[in-house]
Design a protein that fits this description.
CATH topology: TIM Barrel
Strand order of the largest sheet: 1-2-3-4-5-6-7
Radius of gyration: 17 Å
Shape: globular
Order of helices and strands: EHEHEHEHEHHEHEHH
Low-confidence stretches: none
Bound molecules: zinc ion
Structural class: alpha/beta
Number of strands: 7
Number of helices: 9
CATH architecture: Alpha-Beta Barrel
Largest sheet: 7 strands, parallel
Helix content: 40-55%
CATH superfamily: Metal-dependent hydrolases
Length: 244
């Protein structure tokens, strides 16, 4: 891997959802790696999945989660460590609109990921959420699509999708746990990302600290599609947002 790239893992789970480790253990483990950015992105859902995985299913729990991450952000900065810890969440698009609007205060997060965008109806649903956030909050959050599968849009809807990504500056995540989503079969989609300068990120969906550093294959896919600049653009926007 080219050592000039910033090293990030912007998709990890803690015991606040289905991860095996506490935030404290994740931070401790991350500090032992060369990772420069790490984002905790625990699940948020009221779909059928909510009965099967623990998640950030109420405002109280979300506040405790955010407070705990703030505590470690302050500790890291006090100790002058070379790690930027970010507050994230991974919202299941099977969730109901009201559940999202009533529980998510977008400004409190550095990165809001959505999983399972698979249809034009899904884009319409997200636009409703984003329109509400634009009207209600002064700053629009950094939003992204977790382990996004472009194949749903290759036959129909690719232009609609790309327009949507541009309109809300939506990030496409390269996730090491889902190599099939980055196959050359989907090249037309990744060419559009380059053409329209859509930001890309790196995440590996780690549910255990042993896989915190499993980001190499995602970097290789970003190199394969020449999206290094798109990644650097994301890092620039994170730097502008995160506390100095
Ligand atoms: Zn995840």
């Amino acid at each position: 891997m080219n050592i000039d790239y910033p090293k990030l893992n912007l998709h990890t789970h803690s015991t606040y959802s289905d991860g095996r480790n506490s935030i404290k253990q994740i931070v401790k483990a991350a500090l032992k790696t060369d990772l420069e950015y790490i984002c905790i992105t625990d699940h948020f859902t009221d779909s059928w999945k909510a009965d099967h995985i623990p998640n950030l299913n109420n405002l109280d729990k979300i506040m405790r989660y955010l407070d705990e991450i703030t505590y470690y952000q302050e500790l890291i900065s006090k100790e002058n460590k070379n790690l930027t810890l970010l507050k994230g969440i991974e919202i299941d698009l099977g969730s109901s609109e009201n559940f999202i609007l009533n529980n998510i205060i977008p400004n409190r997060f550095d990165l809001i990921l959505f999983e399972y965008l698979e249809s034009l109806e899904g884009i319409a649903f997200l636009k409703k959420i984003f329109t509400y956030w634009e009207e209600k909050y002064p700053i629009f959050p950094i939003v992204g699509l977790a382990h996004f599968d472009p194949s749903f849009f290759i036959i129909r809807g690719l232009d609609t999708l790309v327009d949507f990504l541009k309109q809300y500056d939506v990030i496409i995540e390269f996730n090491s746990s889902y190599p099939q989503f980055y196959s050359p079969k989907q090249e037309i989609f990744f060419k559009k990302l380059k053409e329209y300068n859509i930001k890309v990120s790196i995440g590996c969906d780690s549910h255990h600290i042993s896989s915190l550093r499993d980001i190499e294959s995602a970097y290789r896919m970003i190199e394969f599609y020449n999206l290094e600049e798109n990644l650097n653009n994301l890092v620039d926007s994170l730097d502008k947002k995160s506390p100095a």
